[in-house]
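#dry-run=false #mode=assembly
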Amino acid sequence: MPKHHRKVKKYVQKKAFTSPGTLAYVGKEVPIDTVVKLVEFNEEMYQQKIVRVMSECHPDFNENHTNWLDVDGVHEVSIIESIGKHYHLHPLLLEDVLNTEQKPKLEHFGEHNIFVIMKMLQYNELINEIESEHVGLVLGKNYVISFQEVHKSDVFGAIFERLKASVGKTRKGKADYLFYSLCDLVIDNYYVVIEKFSEKLEELEIKIIENPHPNDQTLLYELRRSLMQIRKAILPLRDIFGALTREDSQLIQPSTNIYLRDVYDHVLQTLETIESYREMIENIQNIYLTSLSNKMNSVMKTLTVFTAIFMPLTFIAGVYGMNFENMPELRNPHGYFYTLGSMVIIGIVFWVYFKWKKYV
Amino acid sequence: MPKHHRKVKKYVQKKAFTSPGTLAYVGKEVPIDTVVKLVEFNEEMYQQKIVRVMSECHPDFNENHTNWLDVDGVHEVSIIESIGKHYHLHPLLLEDVLNTEQKPKLEHFGEHNIFVIMKMLQYNELINEIESEHVGLVLGKNYVISFQEVHKSDVFGAIFERLKASVGKTRKGKADYLFYSLCDLVIDNYYVVIEKFSEKLEELEIKIIENPHPNDQTLLYELRRSLMQIRKAILPLRDIFGALTREDSQLIQPSTNIYLRDVYDHVLQTLETIESYREMIENIQNIYLTSLSNKMNSVMKTLTVFTAIFMPLTFIAGVYGMNFENMPELRNPHGYFYTLGSMVIIGIVFWVYFKWKKYV
Amino acid sequence: MPKHHRKVKKYVQKKAFTSPGTLAYVGKEVPIDTVVKLVEFNEEMYQQKIVRVMSECHPDFNENHTNWLDVDGVHEVSIIESIGKHYHLHPLLLEDVLNTEQKPKLEHFGEHNIFVIMKMLQYNELINEIESEHVGLVLGKNYVISFQEVHKSDVFGAIFERLKASVGKTRKGKADYLFYSLCDLVIDNYYVVIEKFSEKLEELEIKIIENPHPNDQTLLYELRRSLMQIRKAILPLRDIFGALTREDSQLIQPSTNIYLRDVYDHVLQTLETIESYREMIENIQNIYLTSLSNKMNSVMKTLTVFTAIFMPLTFIAGVYGMNFENMPELRNPHGYFYTLGSMVIIGIVFWVYFKWKKYV
Amino acid sequence: MPKHHRKVKKYVQKKAFTSPGTLAYVGKEVPIDTVVKLVEFNEEMYQQKIVRVMSECHPDFNENHTNWLDVDGVHEVSIIESIGKHYHLHPLLLEDVLNTEQKPKLEHFGEHNIFVIMKMLQYNELINEIESEHVGLVLGKNYVISFQEVHKSDVFGAIFERLKASVGKTRKGKADYLFYSLCDLVIDNYYVVIEKFSEKLEELEIKIIENPHPNDQTLLYELRRSLMQIRKAILPLRDIFGALTREDSQLIQPSTNIYLRDVYDHVLQTLETIESYREMIENIQNIYLTSLSNKMNSVMKTLTVFTAIFMPLTFIAGVYGMNFENMPELRNPHGYFYTLGSMVIIGIVFWVYFKWKKYV
Amino acid sequence: MPKHHRKVKKYVQKKAFTSPGTLAYVGKEVPIDTVVKLVEFNEEMYQQKIVRVMSECHPDFNENHTNWLDVDGVHEVSIIESIGKHYHLHPLLLEDVLNTEQKPKLEHFGEHNIFVIMKMLQYNELINEIESEHVGLVLGKNYVISFQEVHKSDVFGAIFERLKASVGKTRKGKADYLFYSLCDLVIDNYYVVIEKFSEKLEELEIKIIENPHPNDQTLLYELRRSLMQIRKAILPLRDIFGALTREDSQLIQPSTNIYLRDVYDHVLQTLETIESYREMIENIQNIYLTSLSNKMNSVMKTLTVFTAIFMPLTFIAGVYGMNFENMPELRNPHGYFYTLGSMVIIGIVFWVYFKWKKYV
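#status=ok
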């Protein structure tokens, strides 16, 4: 939480009130250099190189190949800016790439580019928090440019492997198929995060049903917050992939369309799962509150039983503890035992009465 | 519950991050072999055979007949794959057939196939749980291919019987009418499951209204979960059959349209019933909570009555138990009886007062 | 309630899994015979006869008249079937007529028939329950066929009277105007039921605001259920009459359209009233719960006041009841009276304190 | 409340089940005669007369003037009927004019008339209730007919004044501008009612936040009911003026359109205000409930502190009040004072402990 | 709050019931004079002057420049009126400019003007309240007219600076780009206000989770009110900028469209943030209530433990304080010590029992 808000503050300080279109990085400080990889491939060949001096050597995209420029790290404004200039990317696109606070969105820049912002989610076991990574994908005529916030987790590693090994349809496909593969990968990741979430929720569910504890309320609250965070990352994707599915752009071939529909389908499925967890959290919350009421009832019954049994007995003891000179019972040699006897009987009667009223 | 999540885990482990289009079975392990039946019929004839060696003998669909390929079991990837190859089914279709976690959906594959995924629900009395079975239906030009998760329950048995016996319109109909009949059967099943559900809910309702118990909250929670599970299976069918009703495909004849509208109607009706049960559960929950409050009130009143009656009496007894040398009342020969009398009167006065305040 | 569910069971047993299009009655057993009336009228004449032997004598509709076939009772499948055959009604239409569980719906069967299912509601004072009656209306070129579940209440009696007496526009109108009149009648009935409901709700409202009782929760719950039942019957009519209003069918003349819009308007108004009662019930529920809390608070305050006043006094009495040999106060001749005096003062001080804290 | 329901009953008794189109007044009995005023004006002249004998002298609308027929009182069916006949108003329009229970609506009767029903709201300080007045406006080619339930409040007085004094655009405008002016007036009135409402709500809000009282719940409930009543009158106007804004009728000039849009805007603003008050009431309700819980907590703490301090002390006193022959402490000459001292110490220790636990 | 309602009252008093189109200022009294600045600029030049005597010297807009008339203060009706006359602004536009209660809206006045009303929000640290400022923007062919409520905060100062210094695209842009820049500035401001809000909310969140206090409920309520106020200012902007994005007006160039889409995007993002804070407040509210219940439970347990341990002990002491002549235990020389011992044992047993039941 504190981290999240530190970032927002930065955003406000750096970005608001500057002239729109002015490029500025918004996000956490990163000590690592940006790494830019260029991958060229078609059905026959596959070639990968690291682009070192961005300002001097701009890779030109080979017309006959599918080109993939993978940018690891968006914190070096000058690199992003030079890539932007070279490939004629719109300033607002670059602004969104640099703003790691930007929510997922789809933008069309004329017929040249389709631009998608997504959030890569990862569950950090150490600090028990979901971490979000900013990912931007630009689809052009025969190229894809992918921007990633930091390369802590090698997000697109699997695709590199698949391309190299020529597994599946990936290498036969054009830029739009690559674009789809990258989207698919990000969304597959959500399953993993949601699974982690569901494990924690079910643990808590069993605990609360069996033996609720005051702290559980806070744990439930934290899970609800995590779920809200996940949902925030995924919800906009419904509209984004819904729109891509109905897309009429020349950048996306009809044959790729059915794959995008599949991604859309996965997004819907994920959202439904999230909704059902939301409802589940609400229900667990209800169970928790009801069990509190039940406990209170049980505590109150204990109190009432003790009070109702011992109060009359203490009263009787008090009566025979009075110091009146003339109290005939006191002189009765068996008075004490009769009194003890009545006390036992009264106690038993009340006990049975409360037993019958389900108080004990 | 645990079962459900074990499956999701499998999905994540097996499926996420593999190249899209790679076929893999996602679901429970099944020790039984897949059985493939081929039924050919038209108004005059009916013929049924079991297709044993899929890899060698591919059944070709007879142009003049309606063909129905019924696949019992989707866990043998090679069989599904070979069926897919032979009938030119799209890889994504096969992927959905193999993924028993796939939620219900409708997919068009060009003009060749309409593909529907549904969930068959069954109430398992033994473990008191609703079991879900994965069903996939492919409608082609003159054929229907049906995939079922396992053939534990002979889901489509009734249709076989009806075709053999030439009862009803089923045999006169073409592939689209057969397709409709299969859908109709699955949806008829929901009535049975919902009826089971409603029986349990009404039992609990009566119990909670008459005599709520702390455990009832958990029972109610479990029913709510079951209802959510049923709803999850049926909700997507609204869109699916809504779309099929407005379908303009050549695969569905106008005369079949009115039948699909009828199925759509049943789905809507079922969803409405589910909604009303949802609301009912919420209301029962409210009754439960209110009755807890009412009980608490009643316990508190008992406590208050006991305390308020015996506290003053004990106090009086305490006063006359003091050991002051000069306490004139103590020497009064009737003091003891006067005191006892006042105690009785005070007790009665408080009792009447609390009676009047509706405490007892 | 039990009745409702008995019916669903019947439905499941009889209907589910039979071949679609197979006709079967779904509903309560009825010992009375079906009565079929044929009314022919135009501006000049009015003629009414009872059609006895359906299988032999099929009434043909007179081209120059408006014909109205009124079928009282839908439990005799053979009669419904023979009517269906004679007038070329679609099998699914007949299926819906026979299924008294069918929710309200509008169906077009080509250009020949507009078919509407509605629910007639009636408040049964004896068993304090709302009873629902199944009504089906078929509009054809110059005829209307009306099906009613049983003729316990002579639902359409008013229309017969009006036609005979030639009151209002009814007799001048064509089949579509008759169709409208019948719909209007059913909807007018809802006002009566809702009025009954509102009377009961207001009684309960006043009772709960003035003096809530544990049972009121159950009464409120039953009213909520009744309201849900009414809403279920009326909600689909919004879409049905909305669609009829925009209808472009040759069966409905433009001049009748404005009347259907009026019916639509009444449906909307009724639904709004229902919504406001729903909200009212929720608010009464809140009042009820809050008044429980208020009562609890008041009980607790009583308890606290008694405890807090008498505990210290009893303690003081206890102190002077101790048997130490050297307790100087005990020998003071006025000690007893001083002590009693202090007790009175302490009691008054606490009383004033709690008065000031609004505990008493 | 009772008034409201008396009216509904009348409606049911008089109106339901009569032939549609039969005219009948539905509403409160009014002892005053209907007054019909005819105003003719254009930019140059202004003329106003009272039309006394409706049946004999029908005013004809002057083609060159804008004509306004203002009908105060809709309870005399014959007058409404004769107006209707003379100006060819549709029977359903007259039915709606006579039915003071009719909710707001917009109706087009061909190209001849646009008909709007609205509710004039007024806050009656005496009985602390919002009163609703039925207003119907008919826009024709060069005339407006306005119907008002009773002329208790001279609803349209301001417009008469404005026309006479030739203030603003009103007199230059045609019938459609007059029509707009009347609508605008009714909606301006809502601001006044809502302001009254907001005053009462804020009073209650401050009271509940500072010092909640059991009765406040009922007051809040009544405010909620008032708000629902206001909302019910205004909500349909959103659709009505939304439709009028998009209106393509020849009766409304394009230049008037922008004014209707302004009215539409006011309606939206009013509805938003109502929504925010709704949310505010809900929040106040929450505060109220929470403060009940807080009070309960505080009462319980007081009880616990008293019990926990005096119970052990009374116990100690009880111990030394026992009559054993051999109790060495009793013979100690300072035993009494030691005991008193320990009691004070124990009392202080508990007090400090509960102070530390924030119980006191 | 009081301020807000004082304003509404003024509105009602001044504005309602006057002829529509009559100009009147609605808002707080302002002692400062209105300041009107005229800025003319194009890519080469920038010129700024203060327009002093509005009635005599009307600035004409230079055709070759982009002209910006900035009006600080809308309380002097005559100035607004004269500007309106000179630039042919519609009377309804001026009415909206003068009404500081007017909610945000977008209005088209033919092809000549696009008019937007927005609310500038500012957090006033002194009175801990969000202040709202009325801003109106008129876009014409080559000019923008901006109206601001008061110039307490120099709202558009940053734009002046940017234009002077020729930073960014602002000066190259035409009137539509300036219009966009002003909108963007207002919306950037919301980030600042929301950040302030979020800081306060998180403080309260931590406080409530760790140690809830009765007052926190009121603080939470105030935050909820602030959030509602912010939401009220921003929600209409969604529709406004959504519409501007789809705008087909000649006043907005296609190249500016993408910038407006960016603003639209920011509005959506802000609304989402607001929604998530809303949900967060609700959850905190739940935590608060649950912690109240938990506390109550803990208080009740303390009470029960004290009562249940000391009641039996006091009873035993009472028994041996009875004055029967024949009580054999009393004469036992060790009776006292045996009794004390049993008391200790009973106390320990109960203590352990409650420890086991998690009461202490």
